[in-house]
Amino acid sequence: MRHSLKITDSSMGCTSSKSSKVYTELTIEQIVLLKEKTKFSEKEIREWHTGFLHDCPTGELDRKQLVNVYKHFYPQGNVKPFCKYVFAAVDTNNDGKIDFVEYLLQIAALSHSDLNKRLAAAFNIYDISGDGQIDRKELTILISALYDLVGENDRKGSRDPKNRANDIIARLDKNGDKKLNKEEFIAGCQIDSVLRHILAPTV
Question: DSSP 3-state assignment of 98?
C-alpha cells in the first residue's frame, strides 16, 4: 500500500524554493541516513517517498497542505490552530516548508514502538518557546487547539482550558516550578491514560 499524505488537493501550495532541500530523488547516502534515523527499511522509506511526491510533486509540503492532511483525519474539527504548532515543530530549518526528510523524521517519531519516544515527540510540538518546558500559558493555548482539533465545544468549569492546564500542571509538576519538563510530561502521560488522551490524542 502506498504511504500517502492523503491530501485532498495536491495542487495547493506545492511551491519550490531555492533555499530548500527538495528530495524528488533519494540518493543512497540519504537512504542510509534515513534508515539510521528512522529505523524504517529501505522499502518503507521508498514507499513513504513515493506517497509524499504523489501528493506534493515538488518535494515540499507547506502549511496549507498540512491543514488539508489533518482535515482528512479530523473532519469535524478546526485543525488550523493545532497545525500551526505541528508545522513549527516539523519545519526544523524554519524555511516555511516541510521537506521529505523533515516529514519522515516526524512520522518515525510519532509512530515509534516506544511510547516514551512518541510522547517525547508530542512534547516537542507543545514546547512552543523551545525552552524545554511547557508553562501554563503554553498548555492553555495547546489545550484550546486540541479542543478545536477534535471539535470539543464544552469548555466550562473543569473543562475550561485554563482550569485544565492548572490542574494538569498541579498533578504532573514534580519539582515545583509550575512548569512541565519533558520527563514530567512523559511520566504523567504514561501512568494516566485519560491524561494521555487529553495531551497526546495523536500518540
Answer: strand
Q: Are 119 and 200 in contact (CB under 8 A)?
A: yes
CA atoms within 13 A on the CB side of 100: 28
Beta strands in the chain (DSSP E): 60-61, 98-99, 133-134, 180-181
Decide the pairing of beta strands 180-181 and 133-134. antiparallel
Contact yes or no for 145/82 (Cβ under 8 A)? yes
Is 97:167 a contact under the CB 8 Å cutoff? no
Residues 68-107: pLDDT tens digits? 888 888 898 999 999 998 899 888 888 999 999 888 988 8
Beta-bridge partner residues of 60: 99
Rounded to whole angstroms, what are the CA distances from 186 to 129, 136, 146? 18, 17, 18
Nearest to 147 by CA among 197, 203, 97: 197
pLDDT of 186 strictly over 70: yes
